[in-house]
Amino acid sequence: MKRLLMTTAAASLLALSATAYAQDNTGTSGQSQQPPVVTPPPATNESGGTTDLNNPASPPAADPAAPAPAAEAAPPASPPPSDAVISAQSDGEVRADQIIGMTVYNAAGEKVGTVHDILLDKEGKATGVVLSVGGVLGVGAKSVGLTWKEIDVKPDQQQVQISYTKDQLEAAPDFKTTEQINNEMNAQQAAPPAATPAPAPAQTGGTSTNP
Fold it and tell me: For the chain, how many structural domains are there in total?
């Protein structure tokens, strides 16, 4: 009888233990388990560096040795119209640089000076010449202006002829440019006024007697 009771008690304990174990497993398995969060590895770019998805890296710097992109070629410019272009100098035309520096002779064949400059109007028409008269190698020379009709340009002989003597040209007034005239006027305006002399003291009408 005692053996039977002990066997029955042991069987009951085993049954209770098995029931408790089964309940524990059922409760654990009934709960939904979240899968572990897997962090993806950083992406690798073509240059071999890593790129963070949350903080993307700046684009790689341009290679200084790489050739620059070719600029677009500008369209070719169109020339002025044919009636506005002079392609060659005609036989009846004389360039200004040919006249400037020419020797000036009078009617007797005497050298009276050289051509220093040419005067043109607003339309580009020659109105006169400036001659350099006298001096030594251009130093101390005098500038004299003559109207264009007073000269005879001879390009074949590289000279200019006039009908006045050297003495007449030296007696003529000096030629002044606009800049020279303006400078003289500005100098006169900037000069201080001349001081007015004080009046002499008045003398008394008395006479002096020698001792």
Answer: 1
